[in-house]
Amino acid sequence: MILLGLGGNLASPEHGSPQATLSAALAALPALRVCVAERSSWYRSEPVPRSDQPWYVNAVAALRTALDPACLLASLLALETRFGRMRGAPNAARVLDLDLLDYDGQVIESDTLRLPHPRLHLRRFVLAPLVELAPLWRHPVSGLTATELLGGLPPGEPVLRIAE
After folding, report:
1. How many other C-beta atoms lie within 10 A of the C-beta of residue 17?
2. Of these residues, 39, 44, 85, 124, which one is catalytic?
3. What is the pLDDT of residue 114?
4. What CATH number did the domain enclosing 73 receive?
5. Whole-angstrom Cα Rg for the chain
6. Is 99 a catalytic residue?
7. Predicted local distance difference test score (pLDDT) of residue 161
8. Is the full-model pTM beyond 0.85?
9. Phi first, then psi: what are they for 105, rounded to 5°?
10. How far apart are CA 130 and CA 120, in angstroms?
11. 1 Cβ contact list (under 8 Å, min separation 6)
12. Is residue 124 among the annotated active site residues?
């Protein structure tokens, strides 16, 4: 299973609201030889760490592709740039954030790619949609399921499912 985390909290001049921008990014994936097999619901989440920036819209998608993990990541980063992502300060507001969360359980640590995503087990805004999509998915390092990881988080960090 290949898992993609999506997020954004700024409107795009071309696509509109964060949710519309994320939908447009998903629709652009087939042109990159990436198939979206399934997507969670959309969720609203408070910025992490807390700040005065707008809340995020997040989701998790299951993908299929023949691209290897490094090529897939490069394609995702290029798509972010195409959609107007400007990399600046860490945790800054953004139009589009595409995080490669897991690629068939591979554990990779290089200068350009870390799998599984190094913070996915700490982020409610990733785990809530992941539990909806694949509650029995197992973290390749800890062996814990998505449900167990979510249940082990401390309270806080509101994540609200958006009615579709």
Report:
1. 13
2. 85
3. 97
4. 3.30.70.560
5. 15
6. yes
7. 96
8. yes
9. 75, 10
10. 10
11. 62, 102, 104, 105, 134, 137
12. no
Could you list the beta-strand ranges (E) of 18-128: 34-39, 43-45, 56-65, 97-103, 108-109, 114-115
Render the burial of 72-84: b for 16+ CB within 10 Å, e for the rest: bbebbeebbeebb
The 10 Å CB-count burial string (b at 16+, else e) for 136-161 is ebbbeeeeebbebbbeeeeeebebee
Using CA atoms, how far apart are residues 115 and 75, in angstroms rounded to an integer? 16
* The pair of three-digit structure tokens given for residue 117, joined into one six-digit string: 């995503």
Alpha helices in 59-134 (DSSP H): 69-82, 124-133
User: Total domain count for the chain?
Assistant: 1
161 is catalytic: no
At 75, give phi and psi (nearest 5°).
-65, -40
Catalytic residue among 39, 44, 99, 102: 99
Residue whose pair of structure tokens reads 């447009």 in the numeric block: 24
**DSSP tag of 138:** B
**Residue 121, pLDDT score:** 96
Of 39, 44, 94, 123, which residue is the catalytic one? 94
d(CA 52, CA 57): 15
Encoded tokens for 66? 């023949």
Q: Splitting the chain (164 residues) into consecutive groups of 10 residues, what average pLDDT does each group show?
A: 96 94 97 97 91 94 98 96 79 89 97 95 96 98 98 91 84
